[in-house]
Specification:
By secondary structure, the protein is α/β, with parallel strands linked by helices. It has a single domain, classed as P-loop containing nucleotide triphosphate hydrolases (Rossmann fold, 3-Layer(aba) Sandwich). The protein contains 11 helices and 7 strands. Strands 3-2-4-1-5-6-7 form a 7-stranded parallel β-sheet, sandwiched between helices. Helix 2 crosses helix 3. 42% of the residues are buried. Bound molecules: guanosine-5'-triphosphate and magnesium ion (MG).
Length: 259
């Protein structure tokens, strides 16, 4: 394994399609790349995963065995995935050398908020791994919406303490101006602060301004990458960050948990 990337983000932000597009992009650049579906509840995925947890875990079976509804069954499925980690690992070890992209469940809390996911990520990575967080592009056009995505990003970061890629996915749905503005908010929190002060959100303004202040003090402000699977854009930046991290170059990982 050259390196692993876990693709996270809120439901419907395009995670599975992103996995598919990134895999295609990497293969077009003459590197091996494999995909692993870690979403037991996926009904349709837009790529052929080399490894698929649905081989071991069936949501309909969990619902009937445990008398659970779909959400309760997803929680049990997340825990059962941990019990299958050796089998997933065995299949990973049989793959050729290459990048491995992991698609995670639609409901962000099932993967990103659960303690067991740390063990899962560690067991399925060879030391170094990265996590991408796909933000909702339309939500991210307003300062308050951007902050809501950033808070979720922070929850994922503080769960895993891994190098993160903050991605404005489905960027084709918003204007070039919206993209530039969001990118500038990420690189300069003062601009986010000023934009937020101008937004008519009086009830919560003070609270959100405090959050931006705390972002400024933290490691949470990184860099925002925009991607679109529809336009096949932005994957060059994602891939170059992956090669930089996994194949050397700059030492980008010293602040993190497992290095
Ligand atoms: N416009 C646009 N639509 C996209 C893009 N990527 C994915 N979609 C669409 O968004 C919808 C959801 O895409 P998925 O890839 O299934 O998203 P997901 O985050 O994996 O969804 P869940 O796993 O159910 O949370 C599908 O209809 C995709 O065709 C994109 O870059 N641009
Ligand atoms: Mg998906």
């Amino acid at each position: 394994m050259i390196g692993s990337l876990f693709v996270t983000g809120p439901a419907g932000t395009g995670k599975s399609t992103f996995c598919s597009s990134l895999k295609n992009y990497i293969q077009l650049n003459d590197a091996e790349c494999f995909t692993v579906n870690l979403d037991p509840g996926a009904e349709y995925i837009p790529y052929e995963p080399e490894i698929d947890v649905r081989e071991w875990i069936s949501l309909p079976e969990i619902m009937s065995d445990y008398s659970l509804g779909p959400n309760g069954a997803q929680v049990v499925a997340s825990d059962l995935m941990l019990e299958r980690v050796d089998e997933i690992r065995k299949q990973l070890d049989e793959l050729d050398e290459g990048y491995v992209i992991f698609d995670t469940p639609g409901q962000i809390e099932l993967f990103s908020f659960r303690q067991g996911s740390i063990q899962l990520v560690d067991a399925l990575s060879d030391g170094k791994s990265m996590i991408s967080f796909l933000a909702d592009s339309v939500l991210s056009t307003t300062p308050s919406g951007f902050i809501s995505q950033k808070m979720l990003f922070g929850s994922v970061f503080y769960r895993f303490f891994k190098p993160m890629l903050f991605v404005l996915n489905k960027s084709d749905l918003i204007t070039g101006e919206d993209i530039s503005r969001a990118v500038s908010w990420e690189s300069d929190p003062d601009l986010l602060y000023d934009a937020l002060r101008d937004e008519k959100q009086n009830m919560v303004k003070e609270y959100l301004l405090e959050i931006v202040r705390s972002f400024k003090e933290s490691e949470l402000m990184t860099r925002l990458y925009s991607t679109s699977s529809t336009e096949m854009s932005g994957f060059d930046d994602i891939y170059s960050q992956m090669t930089l991290f996994f194949l050397g170059g700059e030492d980008t990982d010293t602040a993190y948990r497992d290095e």
